[in-house]
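Lesson 9: reading folded outputs for more than one chain in a single document. The general rule is that every protein is listed as its sequence immediately followed by its structure tokens, and records are never interleaved. Here is the first one.
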Amino acid sequence: MSRIQINAGHIIATQNGQHRHLRNGTIVTENDAIVHVGPSFDGSADQIIDVPDAVVTPGFINTHAHLAGSPLDKSFIEDVGPRQFYLSGLFEYLPVRNGAQDSEADVACLAYSMAELLRTGTTTIMEIGHRPLETVEEANKVGMRLYMGPGYRSGRWLTTDGKRATWEWDEDAGDRGLEAAVKFIEQYDGTSNGRVKGFLSPMQIDTCTEALLRRSTDIARQMNLPIALHVSQSVTEFNEMTARHGMSPVEWLQSIDFLGDNVILGHAIILAGGSWANYHGDDIRILADTGSNIAHCVWVFARRGIAMESFARYTAAGINMTLGTDTAPQSMIESLRWAAVCSKIVDRRTDVATAADVFNAATLNGAKALGRDDLGRIEVGAKADLLIWEGDSIFMSPLRDPVKNIVYSAQAEDLNTVIIDGVVRMQDRQIPGVDVRELARNLQAAGERMWPAMQQHDWNDRTVDQLSPLSFPSWE
């Protein structure tokens, strides 16, 4: 057995289901689990890590990601968002990027994403994607704890004129996708010492039939799986669902018995009762009453001027709020900060969406959404998924409240060491076997292939520079 003893100046440990600040404490891990937490330890260890100025926290649980594409959002998707689609890029920009991106780029994105996640504190990732086998392979290379949800749907959205969204349907494709997802989960769930798990992921509420969602719900409950769904992520989607069913998307999900404590709703940001929808109702109460979980991905909306109304309001209602990254940058450090700050701006209050609130969302709440009482915490019996932060760095000094410093001041360079399953996966910001420069070169090459190809996938035959103008004109 391998036993590691970590002596740290600050530990965010867990007692009675809540985080506590342990000063000058000790953590002992044995194989993949934590076997001791406290002020001291009298036993022996195979390795001792003395970090008197450091902060040790649980690893972050990232509940919403698209690893095979998100890195290529950079340098394209920012500063654009058609007013016709209420600032969302889903209906014009996402299809263009997806159509122009080749399979080699998918793999380049996956490899790059795993390194980016480790460098910014994610130890458990929920990936909603279309390359499950390659995702498992890349996760195993770096030791990431992976929840894989192969995406499937009954149809797709598109626009042919830039004025309205339409939907094309292929219900058989949705059924085949669900069957493939179940087969994948049956084969891979519990592999890699239990680090690889599966969940069901019908893609979007507006691209799935009622029959597909009902069948997915039944299978998830039979197999005791989490189930994720994009919902209430744009005004266009909200209006489409109210036109189809005469009720909000969340109300409709409740009517078909989809909601529950194993459900993780991606975004749920355009709700009945909120200003963006301008539609009477109380979706927040429904979400709270059904025990549903929310994966809040603040940056994908904030970069377009859209903010949840608000993180603090959802939390106060009793909704289990978790955090995801969704787009680039895939940094949970940024997710913590933007979730706190945007809620304060919307509420015009400084004492809401506190550092503790968003830190809980990234740890304990994420574990609750997955039905795991062994993740997101530092206590005996939990998995040894740990982050070691440099407490005496330029960004973390002076240090009194470690959680406030991490949420409001820390940078990726402050995260020194990542341990997953009791194994050091990153130390001194270096990931064994990973050449970050090579990952960046491969991603750059993927972009260079993708950008010229976008024109043929755009409804109006626009070039990448027309779709996403450069910040400054080229030198003449």
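And here is the second record, again sequence then tokens.
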Amino acid sequence: MQCDKDPKKIQNMFNEISGYYDKMNNLISLGSHYIIKFLSIKALDIKPNSMILDACCGTGDFSKIISKFYPTVKVIGLDFSDQMIKLAKQKKPKNVFIQGDCTNLPFGENEFDYVTMGFGLRNINDRTKALYEIHRVLKNDGKFLHLDFGNHNKISRIFNIIVPFIVKISGKNSEHYKYLLASKDSFPPPDDLIKEFESRGFKLLKHKDYLFGIISAQIMYK
């Protein structure tokens, strides 16, 4: 399946799946996605009173975890999907969530100590512009956490068989999940991503793999 990443189509897709997005993530990952998000955030070594942007925040998992374990920080969640933002606000009403575009962030230069992005970059048509914007809003020595699917290994291929089965018995939109699997398979593996990040001005701090490399986190700094 071809990955059509037209921004309007991506926005509509996430608006449509927003109502069952969390439930499907729990089913597909057997709940492990939340643990992996926590572990990747822990690896950031977040300092007190920091400013954090959770880009492509979806329903707000990263924002919720950060606020729970680092109560002195300020987190702003941003997502392209207004329906995802509505759910994020329900999940953590006291947090700040705004609808916005990662390729045109509504912030000034050097505003954030950390930027997090989980399972979002591969759905952005213009990755170069998104990475430029993340680099722009990060302070000097600020950290960028990117979490997404990792190596295209045998376990990853098994995952591609299991997910359509779960989607089918759940009665959800199979076309949307076909796209999500295709976007996973066409996304660069971690080593190539790190080179891409470095070409945009970032430097590698840490690289961590989870679930035998199916999921990978790269922590870069400016």
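What the second record shows: The mean pLDDT is 93.
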